[in-house]
Design goal:
Layout: E1 5-8, E2 11-14, H1 15-25, H2 33-71, H3 77-86, H4 106-109, E3 113-119, H5 123-130, E4 134-136, H6 137-142, H7 161-178, E5 189-195, E6 198-203, E7 208-210, E8 217-221, E9 226-230, E10 233-239, E11 250-256, E12 260-264, H8 274-289, E13 293-298, E14 301-306, E15 311-315, E16 320-323, E17 328-332, E18 339-345, E19 350-352, H9 353-371, E20 380-384, H10 389-407, E21 414-420, H11 423-427, H12 429-435, E22 440-445, H13 447-457, H14 474-489, E23 497-500, H15 509-515, H16 517-521, E24 526-529, H17 532-544, H18 547-557, H19 580-604, E25 609-612, E26 618-621, H20 623-638, H21 644-661, H22 678-688, H23 699-712
Parallel strand pairs: 3-12, 3-24, 12-17, 17-20, 20-21, 21-22, 22-23, 23-24
Antiparallel strand pairs: 1-2, 2-18, 4-11, 5-6, 6-7, 8-9, 8-15, 9-10, 10-11, 13-14, 15-16, 18-19, 25-26
Length: 716
């Protein structure tokens, strides 16, 4: 046995990991590290083989689909659907039911709002995200392209008065819309006065104004800010005539923004080494114990951050209340296909990382179950990605029950968020929710991974459309509609979140405001955003639009999308012209996206980052976007739209661009002109070996080359 590990029952545990569990996690809990690992050993004995069987079933189904497409060059949709039913890819739906999940916090069951996703490995980002429960609308308007940064509105100098005034005007327009005054505008107010529980504003013409809906007034904060409530979301109006640079007395509007945050161990994180994984667990422990903090230097100044305190306010009856200062935190574990060497079987083989995540994140959450600060209702919220169909959901539910028994947690405390991001889950979504009916608090359309799986599943069927056109196909709209329709049919209304995917352009906030309302109109009670700023701006959508009312309308119509549309494969169309120039442009675009992301993943262990695309527009990239780009190139390579030589040439040319885009980073390692670094090798492998990667996932190749990089640089 290696001296780096110790044997406990039938497993070998990394000593550093054991010490972390023993000295940090179990401190203050009624369980020892040895007891924990003994329980883990038992759970692995009971669930590890099933984990393996489910992965083998994935491969078996994919093999059958590949063979069917090889033998059926023209697809008859009825025959195709019958074939998928015959092999068990499409399962039978359960009868009518409603989820019966209990002890769910209001942030999930009652409140619609933005949802942040943040890599658990970055303390600073985690704190920023969780603290983004409240955000300054003035800051977000002033500092983004919502107000064009040109001419007299430039931000090139501080406190541009014209830009400040435009910011205030937009804020007043927003207030006029969501909390209107009788016969007046917020532009006219000079101060506010409170009489006998009513809110009365003084206007610049000497008149008085009150709210059209006086029930929107909740009270005053400790600092005297006006607290309103609209669509179950709170906002503060900061009236300060002395500090305000606008003719109104409004200095700022503080919006309840990121109501929930997912801290992520999966696609946005890169935890290859034991130390990286322990670091992620330690950050999550800090959240659950409420002592997470970060100290860093910015512009020569040392800055310390910690979790925000709750907000206090006095209601209209003079009674004191509190509002959460931080987001309700959910944790995303890894998928069942991931493995870890931090804990091993006695034969030194790796164990399923998803089983370890379930045990460790639940153990850590025991601290909050005692404090009841994150979850006031005493629940633990675990988002589970990349599940393929109801059997895998059932496996996860069985695992959760085993974890609860091992840790003496009440049954159904561990709740599940189901990522609807794999084709087999979409086609069987109702059956998936049924398996999780007593634990399901979340379904979400992860269209990025879903697109990657769409391409990979039908890899042998034919040539896919250009990447940006795949979303225009019938399957995509059917997929988005199906998620909401099935969710409401299964009783998620006022019980669980129905979510939509990420806005991937963090600098394009004007465009986000123009486009992301569509998620609310579709009936989504939460939608992903890439930053605290985006969360505050997106919150304005939820103030303007009542999602719960929209869900009621959808329920009353009882219109269900055509399930058969989900099976329409996004093939290249006859009308899609593919001259050589367009082919080159498409593979260049994909290659640049892959390189820009992979070089940071391999060299720096960064799992999610803003990467400039080929047109130098910053896009949020993670393993889901990588999956799309690599699978799309693999599809074109397989069907000989382009050659391997063209692929390699594209990567070499795009490496020059990526090197140039990163030239100001002193830690960046150029890929050109040798093209022999691990990042470049990983990028090309993702495409050339893409058709053979299980479900088109990227982790195996990324981890392989990240480990090579760490070993070559003697980084533990």
């Amino acid at each position: 046995m290696s001296t780096e590990h110790q044997v406990i029952n039938d497993i070998k545990v990394n000593n550093k990991f054991y010490d972390f569990i023993d000295q940090e996690v179990c401190d203050g809990l009624d369980i020892s590290a040895t007891e924990f690992f003994q329980s883990l050993s038992n759970i692995l004995a009971n669930h590890q083989d099933e984990n393996k069987r489910l992965l083998e079933k994935r491969s078996e189904l994919q093999s059958k689909i590949n063979d069917w497409h090889r033998n059926n060059k023209r697809i008859d949709q009825k025959k195709y659907k019958s074939f998928l039913e015959e092999i068990g890819y499409i399962t039978s739906n359960p009868g009518e039911f409603n989820i019966d999940v209990e002890e769910v916090d209001d942030e999930i069951s009652q409140v619609s709002g933005p949802q942040l996703v943040v890599p658990i490995t970055n303390q600073r980002f985690v704190l920023n995200a969780v603290n983004a429960r409240w955000g300054s609308l003035f800051d977000c308007l002033y500092g983004t392209n919502v107000i064009p940064n040109r001419g007299s509105m430039t931000t090139s100098f501080a406190h541009n008065l014209q830009r400040v005034n435009r910011t205030a005007e937009l804020a007043c327009e927003f207030l006029d819309e969501i909390a209107p005054l009788k016969g007046a505008s917020y532009r006219q107010i000079t101060s506010q006065v409170k009489y006998s529980g009513a809110l009365i504003f003084n206007l610049d013409d000497g008149e008085l104004a009150t709210l059209i809906d006086p029930d929107q007034y909740i009270g005053l904060t400790e600092s005297g800010n006006i607290l309103l409530k609209n669509n179950n979301l709170h906002l503060e109006i900061v009236c300060d005539q002395e500090r305000s640079l606008h003719k109104s007395g409004i200095f700022d509007v503080i919006l309840e923004s990121a109501v929930t945050t997912i801290v992520d161990f999966e696609d946005s994180a890169a935890t290859v080494s034991d130390e990286e994984k322990i670091h992620g667990y330690r950050n999550y422990l800090g959240l659950m114990k409420r002592d997470l903090n970060s100290t860093f230097t910015k512009n020569g100044h040392t800055i310390s951050r910690s979790l925000n305190k709750d907000k206090k306010y006095i209601d209209t009856n003079g009674e004191e209340h509190t509002l959460p200062g931080t987001s309700l935190t959910l944790v995303r574990n890894v998928g069942i296909h991931m493995r870890t060497r931090m804990v091993r079987n006695l034969d030194n083989s790796s164990i399923p990382e998803g089983i370890l995540d379930a045990m460790v994140t639940s153990l850590i959450a025991l601290h909050d179950l005692k404090l009841k600060i994150n979850s006031k209702k005493g629940s633990v919220y675990i988002v589970k990605p990349k599940l393929h169909g109801p059997d895998e959901v059932k496996f996860t539910i069985d695992l959760f029950e085993s974890v609860e028994n091992a840790l003496s947690i009440k049954k159904n405390t561990l709740k599940i968020g189901i990522m609807d991001e794999e084709r087999r889950t979409t086609l069987n979504l109702k059956a998936c929710i049924y398996e999780a009916r007593s634990r399901c608090i979340f379904i979400n359309t992860g269209f990025l991974d879903r697109t990657g799986d769409e391409i990979h599943t039908s890899m042998m069927a034919g040539v896919m459309r250009c990447k940006n056109l795949i979303k225009e196909e019938d399957w995509f709209s059917a997929y988005e509609e199906n998620n909401v329709s099935v969710g409401l049919e299964c009783g998620l209304y006022k019980k669980a979140q129905i979510g939509k995917g990420m806005w991937a352009q963090p600098d394009q906030m004007r465009e986000m405001l123009d486009n992301k309302m569509v998620h609310l109109e579709a009936g989504a009670s939460c939608s992903w955003v890439p930053s605290p700023t985006a969360a505050t701006l997106h919150a304005t959508h939820y103030h303007r639009f009542d999602v719960l009312s929209q869900q009621q309308k959808i329920l009353s119509k009882n219109q269900k999308p055509n399930q058969d549309d989900l099976l329409v494969i996004p093939f290249l169309k006859l009308a899609d012209q593919l001259p050589e120039e367009k082919i080159i442009n498409e593979i260049n675009n994909n290659a640049q996206s892959i390189l820009g992301y992979v070089v940071r993943w391999i060299n720096h262990g960064v799992g999610c980052s803003k990467v400039q695309d080929i047109n130098h527009v910053g896009l949020m990239e993670d393993r889901a976007t990588l999956r799309i780009s690599s699978q799309h190139m693999a599809n074109w390579l397989h069907h000989e739209i382009c050659s391997e030589e063209q692929i390699i040439q594209a990567f070499k040319e795009m490496a020059l661009i990526v090197d140039q885009q990163n030239k100001h980073d002193p830690n960046y390692i150029p890929m050109a002109p040798k093209y022999d670094c691990y990042a470049f090798k990983a990028s090309t492998a993702l495409v050339i070996e893409g058709a053979d990667q299980a479900n088109g996932y990227t982790e195996d190749i990324l981890i392989k080359y990240r480990r090579k990089f760490l070993e070559a640089n003697q980084i533990t």
